[in-house]
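Exam revision sheet. Question 4 asks you to relate a sequence to its structure. Input first:
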Amino acid sequence: MLNTILGTTFVCQIAMVVRDVEKATRKFASLLNVPVPDIITANHDGSDTVTYRGESTPGRVKLSFFHMENTVIEFIEPTEDPTTWKEFLETNGPGVHHIAFKAKDRMMPTAAKLEEFGFPVIQNGDKYVYVDSTDDLGVILELLDID
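Answer key, structure tokens:
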């Protein structure tokens, strides 16, 4: 592991918030001439504990994932649940929401270090944390608890 706050320089995902995940997914698949991936509704069953700006939320969201050679491209369509995705779409319109770094087994300690660095946690679930780095970096950072 690198001696950095993040513990890595490997970007594992870039995610865009869109108004219509089905449309964006079909268009991107057509652009790349690849099969259209499944679109899922994350946390539809409430199995993930989601906190947004300190408050509990269902945190449901519609997602698609393109597994590229060098990273994962994610498209996100917010639901009416209060989330960073909904806030982003309402405030900025469609666009790049976050870049993600793997933080297996060190997600919350890394998030605490990022808060000390000036990037507060804005939303988290069981396997992810978003920190607000937009004023300094122009994008949200995500920590993923994945291998």
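Marking note for examiners. The chain has four helices and ten strands.
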